[in-house]
Design brief:
- The chain has helices at about 15-25, 50-60, 75-80; strands at about 1-5, 30-35, 65-70, 90-95, 100-105, 120-125, 130-135, 140, 155-160, 165-170, 175-180.
- It is α/β, with parallel strands linked by helices.
- It has a 6-stranded mixed beta sheet, covered by helices on one side. Strands 4-5-6-8-7 form a 5-stranded mixed beta sheet, with no helix packed on it.
- A hairpin with a 2-residue loop joins strand 7 and strand 8 (about 140).
- Helix 1 (about 15-25) packs parallel to helix 2.
């Protein structure tokens, strides 16, 4: 099966639309959102076409396809307008035989690892910096930010297909790929 991961939309209608389009074109079964969906946050500039109400509408239309975790910019009011759960700090997903600990990254991250087993994947957003690396017995993945990438990275998202994880730009260029096979 195929799954898409995206993080840090930050209320950008422009990049949310690109995310939704990439999801539809990918043939992925689910869209897993790693937090910071609606608000840009006090440390970030406004993203392109900042329009949280449009983002709400686009995401709610896909509510049956979305798994999401809470970012540091989510608030209870966001759950009042979004029609899918967004307030969990993490989710444990077994996808294609691989256990993923999905979180935003502001609480659990490489410096503060969650209780995961060897071979598991920690996947998070928060830093806006794409990454896919084996670290000891684990894999750490950050699909980057769809709307406010940092450290010179382009806007990106991730695709898990079989046991391969790819980080792609919205033009379809693969910028990072990692095999998750044991």
């Amino acid at each position: 099966m195929k799954y898409m991961f995206a993080s840090d939309i930050h209320g950008s209608a422009f990049y949310c639309e690109k995310t939704v389009q990439a999801f539809k074109e990918s043939g992925a079964e689910r869209l897993i959102l790693l937090g910071d969906l609606l608000y840009h946050g006090p440390r970030n500039d406004l993203p392109k076409d900042y329009a949280p109400k449009k983002v709400i509408s686009m995401l709610n239309q896909m509510k049956d396809k979305i798994y999401a975790v809470r970012g540091n910019c989510e608030a209870e009011v966001d759950q009042m307008v979004l029609e899918f759960p967004v307030m969990a700090d993490y989710g444990v997903l077994v996808l294609n035989g691989i256990t993923f600990y999905a979180t935003h990254g502001h609480i659990m991250n490489e410096e503060h690892m969650p209780p995961i087993q060897p071979g598991d994947v920690l996947i998070h957003g928060h830093t806006h910096v794409l990454r896919a690396d084996k670290v000891g017995d684990h894999v750490i993945i950050n699909p980057g930010s769809t709307s406010i990438p940092k450290e010179g990275n382009p806007p990106t998202y991730g695709i898990l297909e079989d046991q391969t994880f790819k980080i792609l730009t919205f033009s379809g260029e693969v910028v990072k790929e990692i095999s998750l096979k044991q």
